[in-house]
Amino acid sequence: MATTTEAAARELHDRAGAERGEVAPGVEGVLGYGDLDREHRALVEGCGVVDRTWAGRLELTGEDRVRFLQGLVTCDVQALAPGEGTYGFVTSRKGQVLADLRLLALADRLWLELPAGRGEAVAEHLGGFKIADRVEIGPLDRVPLTVAGPRAAAVVAAASGQEPNEADWSHREASVAGADVRVARRALVGTEACDLWVPPGGAAAVWAALVEAGAVPAGFTALETLRVERGVPRWGAEIGPETLPQETGLEEAAVSYTKGCYLGQEVVARIHYRGGVNRGLVALRFPEGAEPPPAGAALLAEGRPAGTVGTALRSPSLGRPIGLAIVHRRAAEPGTRLEVEGGGAAEVAAEVAAEVAAEVTAEVDEVPR
Prior knowledge:
- 26% of the residues lie in helices and 32% in strands.
- It has helices at residues 4-15, 36-45, 65-70, 119-127, 152-160, 203-212, 220-229, 251-254, 265-274, 352-366; strands at residues 19-24, 27-32, 48-51, 56-61, 85-91, 97-105, 109-114, 136-139, 143-148, 171-176, 179-186, 193-198, 216-217, 279-285, 298-301, 304-315, 320-328, 337-340, 345-349.
- With 369 residues, it is an alpha+beta fold.
């Protein structure tokens, strides 16, 4: 049963035309507000606001929280001062990615944002390593509202009365619509972005204040189109529990090779220093007019298995279907032609992100001033 505050937020989204559906197995979210091109354009050229209540969220407290988490993730938790943050992976003993995480360090606690539907599983995984550690793992009672687009900082400043910090993942307290929120710079979106971590009781008012300040309501689908256009993988799509950090294209952002030991570190370090991986992230371009293939469709190179489609969708910027996949290195060269299971073809693209940027720049230049 929804609480009064959850019902208020839902009613606000419904008035804006919210269309709901699954954003991950068993997880519902707002897919959009009826005009994908408008929402996508806001994220690319202006500013959109996305209610990301679907995200997994955990909070770690207790005096051993930093040392405890340091031994279970790829990023350097001990290097963070309060007000700083980072990005990393939760890894298995075999070095595989169980989840990616965005981590914010506060004076007396750690906040973890996780993929949709992964909060409970990660909490159970972390809890399995508690022995005599003075650490508590529980749900984070904050709602993330993401403001994204070239005007994101300006909209946040208009709504809160102060500019957000500039460093990636850095964060500080602010007041928006009478609610005490934590504003964090967000990276790996494909554009400038901030997360506003809001107490549930203030989510509806803060969302409305951001819209009043100039943000366009946008949903999960618009955020996905931006992500794929900019070549950013997502756990649950391109990345899964069999994926190694070096296969994701996010190794530089997510993995510290100086922090010391953590679960799976030996495997991750051995790959980094002694060898490499046979698979990697690529962008895909599909024929104009074709329907995007379903996620999980097999990709073949010269009749041999090469990988599977992670995400495929229509690019509003290019007016054609594009996608992301992790494929075998023999099929990863730009220009490689791939067959798609069930019919159809794909081509490994060199720079879809650059192609999109050129198209968007041309469109902006054509707008009368």
